[in-house]
Structures are given as structure tokens and as C-alpha cells.
Hints:
Layout: E1 2-6, H1 12-23, E2 29-34, E3 36-37, H2 42-52, E4 56-62, H3 69-80, E5 87-91, E6 100-102, E7 115-118, E8 121-122, E9 132-137, H4 140-152, H5 172-195
Amino acid sequence: xxxxxxxxxxxxxxxxxxxxxxxxxxxxxxxxxxxxxxxxxxxxxxxxxxxxxxxxxxxxxxxxxxxxxxxxxxxxxxxxxxxxxxxxxxxxxxxxxxxxxxxxxxxxxxxxxxxxxxxxxxxxxxxxxxxxxxxxxxxxxxxxxxxxxxxxxxxxxxxxxxxxxxxxxxxxxxxxxxxxxxxxxxxxxxxxxxxx
Length: 196
């Protein structure tokens, strides 16, 4: 598991991850959400190339990303109008996924599934000055949960079996409150013990 903190670490690794997945013959599919990217995006070019090479490409597009609506409509159309079109689902502000995920399954049995999780910005230019976090992992449990979320992201269902991720609006609020309480209890006990 590796984490990146943009802009302090280069966003190029994210672009290279998708470029490699697009051209790797062992990768069968790329599924992701896109909240924000550039108008002439290398990310979109990689997804179109992957579709043209016969991979299954599914993208959940957030059209109402603040200040990026026109760009998002443009590249959603590019994905839909590719020579071998990508599946594009349009998301709204109530969708449970507002970050970007990519999980390219591979052909070989027992091979590793790679996953990228990010805080939403897939815009290579603004990644140089906006703060975002990225996580690259091959954790199978996390990969299965992300795959489940991507499969059900377009349906307003409560998704069962999520243990690793905190997903809004389903269980994130309650889990944050429990985590805060968990941290508060020992701190309160320590203060009481010190004063007695």
C-alpha cells in the first residue's frame, strides 16, 4: 500500500497507472468514478484507448462538479463517442461516490488486482496546487468493496458488507461519531485518573 499527497508528490504516478492499465493486455476492465479532470485529459485519453483495445470501461461521471461542468460534459461525450464506446453513468450530487477509483481486473488467475483511491481530483494541472490524497493498493478486501460500490453506485441502495471503507451517505456519519467517541473515552478516563 502506498499513499501520495498531492501536490507534494507527483500526480504523474496516477496518470501512468491508468496509461499502463489501458495498454496492458492482461487488464480486462477499468471501472472508476470521475469528479473532475481537464478538458484535454490524459486520463480520458487512456480510458478511450482502453475501450478501443477491447477492455470494458465503465465511468461514473459527476456532471455537477463545481466550475467543471462544461469540461465534464465534454469528456463524458468523448467517452461515449469513442470508436468502442465506454459505459458512462451520469451521477448527481446525491451519489455515494465522490472520489475517484480505478480497479483494473487482470486475465491471469491468481493475479493481483490493483486499485487507486483518491479524494476526487483527476485533473493533472490542478493537482500541482490543490491538496489531494491518493492511495495505491492491491488489498483484495478493499478491492472487493470498491468493486461492490462501483457496481451499485447508480442505485440508491444501502450497500451491505462494507467494512473497510467509510461510505457517505450510508454509514460514514455514524462511523465518524463512533470513532470520535472511541478517542474521547480514553482521554476522559486519563484526565479523571490524573486528577484523582
